[in-house]
Amino acid sequence: MKQNQLFQQTRWRIASWYVGVMGIILSLSGFGVYEAIVHAHKITVDREIEAVAGTLHDSLETVFKTPEQFEPDIWRILPDLCVIESENDCQSNTPDSAVNHRHFYPSPLHQYKIFSRNYYSIRLLNSSGNLIAVSGSSLPTLASKLTSQPWQTLEDNRGSRYLFYSTPLHTRNNQIWGRLQLGRSLQDFDQYLANVRLMMGLGLPLSLISVAIASWKLAGIAMQPIYQSYQQIQQFTADAAHELRTPLAAIRATLESTLNEQTLSKNQARETLEVIERQNHRLSQLVQDLLLLSRMEQKIESSSKNLCCLNDLISDTEEEIAALAIQYQVTLKTEICVKKPVVVKGNEAQLYRVIFNLATNGIQYTLPGGKVSIILESSLNYAIIQVQDTGIGISPEDQTKIFDRFYRINSDRSRSTGGSGLGLAIVTAIIRAHQGTIEIQSEKGKGSIFMVKLPLKS
Ligand code: ADP
Fold first, then answer.
1. What is the pLDDT of residue 412?
2. Residue in 354, 392, 424, 444 to alter for ligand 1 test, most ligand atoms within 8 A of Cβ
């Protein structure tokens, strides 16, 4: 297959298409999985912010008494809260730098470890929207972009993203105190997604390389039977051309030598015509055989199946080939081992051809003094025809090949018998069309047994 350009190109094409389609499928699935991961993480982060903001909001509202006033208890909840009194206050509000740093009291927010991770930024705004206190990590570059929308995602000049949640704050007696803005750095989330993208980015080409190797191999395996059948067709065409060439060359040579004669006697003319007639017969026999084989392979030749009595077919064959057996000095015998007629459903002419081909082969490949027997038996479901000879036999390697079209073990001997190597191919095709089987037992120098099994009429 490697030498055949057409097959190589087709193999490339199949493998490339497969890789292309798999690439699209894998990319789409990867994109789908990535989107699902993003979505799931986004929901988790949103819920986390909502939960932290809710806890903080509820805790602060229990402390606030007067709008925009900071009760001392507030530092119990936010120990690092820094109140902005002038513009430069709280530029870097870490717990250590807190202006109003008080004793540390574990607050509900510490359950979320928001200080330790330094992900959160807490901003308290008065009712007019001015920033009056901050806690957690500072976000000076983003602060100006914040609006009063409940959810906002902002990006600082270093490309880090932050998600903000904003909610109103009330005093204990339900007066508006101001607004709480809780921002969370999305650094961990973005880092995780960057890792997922990296894994997918590396995984996709690696998967495609594996798919390419697998599809190249699989395309080769899938094309193997097609290539074999292509080779068989090529071989068949070459063999058929070779077989047709021989009689045509004989006719041409005879005609040329006859035409070269100045005068032609009646006898010479007759001899020429006889040669042409003989070669013409051989040609038409060959063409008929090829046609029959091709029709049987395409299952066109399944017509006219009747009940056929094998006893009668064997007797007819015996009569027909008796003269041939005498010519080859071979004893021909038939043995009918059943009392009742053995009837199968099939095409009589074709079944006759099976017995005839096997029996004539038996005679032609048996040396003078040998014996050929045609035996008819029957089992519960099958009719069994055996053609046994004491001839030249067939080697085990050849036993599998002799059923191929145009295969001849000994071409010279076959050709002298008028054989073209199609006889057993036709036999096999007929038996297959009748749902039967053919088996061979043979030993070189001792003889052969061809056993045909045909299903009995049901
Ligand atoms: P052919 O028309 O040449 O006989 P077949 O297809 O009938 O072609 O047989 C194929 C080859 O099988 C023959 O050329 C012959 O060499 C071998 N063969 C077939 N039958 C026998 C047999 N009974 N004994 C030995 N060789 C046989």
1. 55
2. 424
pLDDT of residue 261: 85
393: in domain = yes
Q: Which residues in the chain show pLDDT less than 50?
A: 93-106, 110-113, 115-117
Q: CA 134 to CA 99: how far, in whole Å?
A: 11
| Minimal-distance CA residue to ligand 1 atom 11 | 408
Q: Which atom, in ligand 1's list, is nearest to the CA of 366? A: 24
Ligand 1, atom 20, residue with closest C-alpha: 361
Q: What are phi and psi of 56, to 5 degrees?
A: -65, -45
Other C-beta atoms within 10 Å of 264: how many?
11
Range of the structural domain that residue 55 is part of: 5-193
Last residue of a domain, one of 132, 166, 193: 193
Tell me what pLDDT residue 88 has.
65
Residue 414 Cα: closest atom of ligand 1: 3
Does residue 206 form part of some domain?
no
Asked if residue 163 is part of any domain, the answer here is yes
Give the ligand 1 atom nearest the CA of 409.
Answer: 16
Partners of residue 352 on adjacent β-strands: none
Per-residue model confidence (pLDDT) at position 5: 86
Which residue, of 149, 172, 193, is where some domain finishes?
Answer: 193
* Residue found under tokens 């066109």: 300
CB 366 within 8 A of CB 392: yes
How much helix, strand and coil, in percent to the nearest 5, is found in the chain?
55, 20, 30
Task: Using the atom order of ligand 1, give the atom closest to the CA of residue 411.
Answer: 14
Protein residues whose CB sits closer than 6 Å to any atom of ligand 1? 357, 361-362, 365, 389, 391-392, 394, 402, 407-410, 414, 419-425, 448
pTM for this model (two decimals)? 0.61
CA 342 from centre of chain: 48
pLDDT, position 103: 41
Residue 331 lies in a domain: yes
Q: How many domains does the chain have?
A: 2
Q: How far is the CA of 299 from the centre of ligand 1 (A)?
A: 25
* Amino acid, res. 30: G
Helices (H) and strands (E) in the chain, counts: 11, 13
Whole-number percent of the chain with pLDDT over 90: 52
Write the DSSP string, 318-384: HHHHHHHHHHTT-EEEEEE--SSPPEEEE-HHHHHHHHHHHHHHHHHTS-TT-EEEEEEEE-SSEEE
Dist. CA 285 → ligand 1 center (Å): 17
CATH number at residue 92: 3.30.450
366-388, pLDDT tens digit by residue? 999 999 999 999 998 999 999 99
